[in-house]
Amino acid sequence: KNIVFLGSPQVAASVLDTLLAASSSPDSAFQVAAVVTQPPAAKNRGRKLLPSAVAQLALERGFPGDLIFTPERAGEESFLSDLKGVKPELCITAAYGNILPQRFLDIPPCGTVNIHPSLLPLYRGAAPVQRALQVCMMHLLQF
């Protein structure tokens, strides 16, 4: 079965790495058919365009560059057409950073699963892991 992974920062790259390793097993029931990530962004002092951590990892693992999609918005017609072309059974997101429109969500017959490193909706926002750790530390200090 084809799955599509969506993610961008380093925390998402570790999820992709696990999925790629699992899919390479001879008895795996799935394969990563495509990777979706944010477009390259200007970083560092030179403001050089660099791919996301997810794109970098995918390329380092030998994932085909033409199956790494970097749409500005997940509702772009050309992107949705490319996504339909890989026939995903399931999509998995981890810190993708883009709102997925209903037209996207209707494509995989098994749906889309969002993996998040903290408890939602309680610890959401720009730094959910840090917020969850702060709350844990506050509780520990009360003992």
User: How would a crystallographer describe the biggest sheet?
Assistant: 5 strands, parallel
Q: What is the averaged pLDDT score? A: 88
Main sheet strand line-up: 5-2-1-6-7
Model regions low in confidence, pLDDT < 50 over at least 5 residues? none
| End-to-end gap | 49 Å
Count of DSSP strands: 7
CATH class (first level) name:
Alpha Beta
Q: Give the total of domains.
A: 1
Oligomer: single chain
Number of helices: 5
At the third CATH level, what is the topology name?
Answer: Rossmann fold
**What's the CATH H-level homologous superfamily?**
Formyl transferase, N-terminal domain
Shape: globular
Rg, Å, rounded = 17 Å
Structural class: alpha/beta
Elements, N to C (H/E): EHEEEHEHEHEH
- Named CATH architecture: 3-Layer(aba) Sandwich
Helix proportion: 25-40%
In a few lines, what is going on in this structure?
GO terms for molecular function: methionyl-tRNA formyltransferase activity. This is methionyl-tRNA formyltransferase. The protein has 143 residues and is an alpha/beta fold.
